[in-house]
Amino acid sequence: MTIKIAIVNSSSFGKYFPSHMDRLKKLGEVDRFEFSKDIRGKELAEKLMGYSIIIASVTAQYDREFFEKKDKTLLIARHGIGYNNIDIEAATEKGTFVTIVDAIVEREAVAENAIALLTSVIRQVGLAWRKVKEGKWEERAKLIGYEIKGKTVGIIGFGNIGSRVGEILKYGFNTKLIAYDPYLSSEEIIKRGAEPVSLEELLKNSDIISLNAFVDENSYHILSDKEFSLMKKGVFIVNTARGELIDEKSLIKALDEGIVAGLGIDVVEGEPIDQHHPLLAYKNVIITPHISAYTYECLSGMGDKVVSDVEKVVKGENPDNVVNKELLK
Ligand SMILES: NC(=O)c1ccc[n+]([C@@H]2O[C@H](COP(=O)([O-])OP(=O)(O)OC[C@H]3O[C@@H](n4cnc5c(N)ncnc54)[C@H](O)[C@@H]3O)[C@@H](O)[C@H]2O)c1
Asked: Which family does it belong to (predicted)?
């Protein structure tokens, strides 16, 4: 029986490295799908009926309803690290391996985009570029920024990416580095180069805050009214992790009050957003459309991993980086 492989809502997989597609086509029939991010589980299951392998992006939602309606699915391979769009319990009950890319593959790309966002927002690069394009070179004296050197940088979530963001800012820009991560020991945080602090201390002392935590019930809206009220007035915030870490209403209030002097984000709650999103009204906000992992180096590594998972599953072997380890043979 021919194996059918579906690539769902991925704008990058197989597009830049044709060898990844060639390897998949050796295994079976490969089709691309583009669904609305809000597609219901039932409809998604109907559309993907017969596809036993799915290469999944950050959308659609593979919820319980999807797994209840879907026929046998051997593998959902995330072309990425996060998997909060997949109901792992339901996948496990159905016997579907869920795999993710090894976080290290995305480390450098995401960390470097955090730095790009920070340097852009702190020096108003986007705004300055717009002035030049509009023929307003002479307005340059209005575009005064800040230096990063010597500032206190607070990293929330000092894991794979956060520790690299910290490393670049500490050793490249001579910043003071503090980090809050309740799941890491103080010794580990110190070993990774930062001073361990409480969330409150971090908020009170940071000139720059980088969000690099994963989202769960404890970190959801970790920056909300109370947290913004503790921050230094004029703080710069970078978020390359997940939009859900920030309560947007509180953020907008903090921008209006000048608590947040600049915001550089790659992720927005409820993304993708359109051109009417309230954050776009702010000159001191720069947003990239979830592109942090989009480097050629990273895409090559991610694609290799996904294809290798598919190859292994087709051969009846365990894939790598399985989320639902109960299924490992
Ligand atoms: N923008 C992108 O394209 C992109 C790409 C890759 C990863 N990400 C996101 O970046 C984030 C970090 O990825 P990673 O590879 O470093 O993951 P990781 O698991 O190595 O690091 C996350 C860290 O956050 C910490 N953490 C969890 N809850 C916390 C909380 N409440 N407060 C403080 N720290 C907390 C964890 O202990 C962990 O050390 C994830 O949310 C991931 O989804 C985004």
From this structure: Belongs to the D-isomer specific 2-hydroxyacid dehydrogenase family.
